[in-house]
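<goal> How does this chain fold?
<sample>
Here is the protein in question

***
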Amino acid sequence: MKNKCNFDKGIDRRNTNCIKWDINHLIFGEKDVLPMWVADMDFEAPPKVIEALIDRAKHGAYGYTLHPRSLKEAITDWEFRRHNLKIQSDWISFSPGIVPAVNFFVDCFTKEGDGIIIQTPVYYPFIYACDRNNRKLVNNQLIQTKNGYEINFDQLEDQLSDPDTKMMIISSPHNPVGKVFTADELTKMAEFCADNGVILISDEIHQDIIFSGNEHICTSSLSEKIAQNTITCVAPSKTFNLAGLGFSALIIPDEEKRNKFQKYMDAKGIHGSNLFGIIAGEAAYRHGNDWLNELLIYLEGNIDYMENFFKEHLPKIKMQRPQSTYLAWLNFREYGYSQKELVDKMVKEAKLGLNDGSAFGAGGEGFMRLNFACPRSTIEEAMKRMKTVFS
């Protein structure tokens, strides 16, 4: 059956106040770089989402808006159909985004000086959430092996047994390394947390971008004990390219934690969501399944192209095939460059705007993160530019 979606077409995002495309000079100090960094897609959102937004926009009044029951039903249905996670609608709270939510959780459930465990190299807002809220960052750095990244469980057990440790934040699937945690890995981490009274925040925003041979396991699905100690963060933003609409869902099964968080949000005056985020989120979860399946096929084609290109033309650049996310974690360590030299060569010579791996914390040195959620022609151009500099 022929695909209905033409992802090769992409969409021109320039001159739309787009963070990825319109401020190269501020981010990289160069105007003419090809930007492949921030984690959104250079594709149109699903047609049903666009239609729903246009229909609502035609109404003409955009006042204060409730989270309808149908929205929560769409989320619970999606989580069950796609990920076998059974949740109740009253477990769901909302936030303008997962990054704000992580900061809310840090502020709500911990106090200054408390320890918070993260696993670098990791999505850098986790680091900021600890540092900028005056919490103690406790790093359970992932161990890089020939077969992928592994968790240092011996160290983690010691870190969790410290009475000052109050929270652990995980990226599952993991950004930037593209790892899908196994049920055994998640169970071990989550049970360690529960046994030590450490709240587990599971950022599962990339849960829908899963490639062949892998399966995302929702942390809260593992057991009742784990569910009661876990807060799960999900959103349609990465999956359906809706990040600019400021909408995410927070799943909090434990009533005591849920009530405490709601009181915190009330005290901060944080209510409601962006009207169009609500509309788009419900439309995506109700009608986006087939579009997503086609997207995954296309993204895997981009992975295949990069993997083959590196092997044939740039064997010193190591790309561990991502199991999830549309972010390639590229290892340049064989070249022996300092991180500044690597970034300068990428930006000033290759004219490519990738994420500096060192921003993701310890273990990110010698790496760059490349966003491959774009038309194949963009990937081809990026590989061509890389070859001219790194051959």
Notes: The CA atoms of residues 7 and 375 lie 6 Å apart. Residues 289-313 form the longest helix (25 residues). The longest strand covers residues 165-171. The domain at 19-46+289-390 is CATH 3.90.1150.10 (Aspartate Aminotransferase, domain 1).
